[in-house]
Amino acid sequence: QVQLVESGGGAVETGGSLRLSCAASGRSFSTYDMAWYRQAPGKEREFVASISWGSGITRYADSVKGRFIISRDNAKNTVYLGMSSLKPEDTAIYYCFLPLLNYWGQGTQVTVSS
């Protein structure tokens, strides 16, 4: 069974940066598309970014384009989300997601203060 474990969350000020990691265990995820979602208090979970398994094609939500970068290291079975120019509205729990198998990580909290 695949387990996804996120790390790297924390508290930063507006304009700061963080890099989230999602380590997969249980099987290789190198042939799967991966994604990041987030859920802010009182709001629905929303798509943030995704990366395809083969060509590494990336997609981003409009709200994070130009500020966030998704990447992956298949040798380490890890996907990353680099976040810069963070805003208070980026405050949320960030989840790693493997769409094809519908696996979610437990989430990591990101808090951006003004």
Proportion of residues in extended strands: over 45%
The number of helical runs is 0
Principal-axis shape: globular
Indicate the mean pLDDT: 95
Taking Cα atoms only, what radius of gyration do you get, to the nearest Å?
Answer: 13 Å
Helix/strand/pairing category: mainly beta
What is the count of β-strands? 11
Helix content: under 10%
Helices and strands, in order, run as: EEEEEEEEEEE
Low-confidence stretches: none
Question: What is the straight-line distance between the termini?
Answer: 40 Å
Major beta-sheet overview = 7 strands, mixed
What does this entry look like structurally?
With 114 residues, the chain is mainly β. Helices cover 0% and strands 52% of the residues. It has strands at 3-7, 10-13, 18-25, 34-39, 46-51, 58-60, 68-73, 78-83, 92-98, 103-104, 108-113. The radius of gyration is 13 Å and the shape is globular. It starts with a strand and ends with a strand.
Secondary-structure map with pairings?
Blueprint lengths: L2 E5 L2 E4 L4 E8 L8 E6 L6 E6 L6 E3 L7 E6 L4 E6 L8 E7 L4 E2 L3 E6 L1
Parallel strand pairs: 2-11
Antiparallel strand pairs: 1-3, 3-8, 4-5, 4-9, 5-6, 7-8, 9-10, 9-11
Pick out its properties.
114 residues; 52% strand
Summarize this entry quickly:
The chain has 114 residues and is mostly beta strands. The protein is 0% helix and 52% strand.
